[in-house]
Amino acid sequence: MTQRYSRQKARPGNRSQPKSVSGMQAAVASDPPCAGIRVWMLRELDQKRQLPRLARRELRRWVGDHPALDDLELIVSELMTNALVHGGGAWVRLSLRSEEVGGRRYWRLAVLDPGRSASVPMPRMPALGEIRGRGLWLVNELTGGCWGTELTQVGERVVWALLPLDERSEEPAT
């Protein structure tokens, strides 16, 4: 089941994610720059609110000083926070890989959680005084609408976002 919130046409291809592996931490070699996968067991964290910071640190380790790092860090902070607040699980997985869509290369950042929430991630309109509720609007703007959510075959929730990997890739994937 895939739900897309995008101004562009749907992106072709299989977006299924592999099943999660408890405690897994691995760097996945791919075409440079490299990508990675990291799973955090929430019970192992001193404080759950550390998770977005840990995810940003992991991204910096994976991509170094890539021009998209600032945007990737903001997106991962928002998606990790959403997984903590709404995911309701014992773990959260982060993956980052490069992929080619329509002749352009993109970073595909994905956050996966056990999917215990029945709600579907989508931008909402927060009240003027609300502190929360703007994260997915930021993700939508940074990705040019190229982000989405889906459930794996075992019911895990995946929220993914695409960002141009090369500076010359200015337009979002279609």
Order of helices and strands: EEEHHEEHEE
> Number of helical runs?
3
Strand order of the largest sheet: 1-6-7-5-4-3-2
Please give the alpha-carbon distance between the first and last residues. Answer: 19 Å
Helix/strand-derived class? alpha+beta
Query: How much helicity do the residues have?
Result: 10-25%
List segments where confidence is low: pLDDT < 50 over at least 5 consecutive residues: 1-32
**How would a crystallographer describe the biggest sheet?**
7 strands, antiparallel
Specify Rg, calculated over alpha carbons.
15 Å
How would the global form be characterised? globular
Mean pLDDT: 77
What's the number of extended β-strand segments? 7
What features would you describe in this structure?
Strands 1-6-7-5-4-3-2 form a 7-stranded antiparallel sheet. Strand 2 and strand 3 (35-41) form a beta hairpin. It has 3 helices and 7 strands; from the N terminus they run E-E-E-H-H-E-E-H-E-E. The chain has helices at residues 51-63, 69-87, 135-143; strands spanning 2-4, 25-28, 35-41, 91-101, 104-113, 147-151, 157-164. The protein has 174 residues and is an alpha+beta fold. The chain starts with a strand and ends in a 10-residue tail after the last strand. Helix content is 24%, strand content 28%. The longest helix has 19 residues, at 69-87. Helix 1 packs antiparallel against helix 2 (69-87) and helix 2 (69-87) packs antiparallel against helix 3. Residues 1-32 have low confidence and may be disordered.
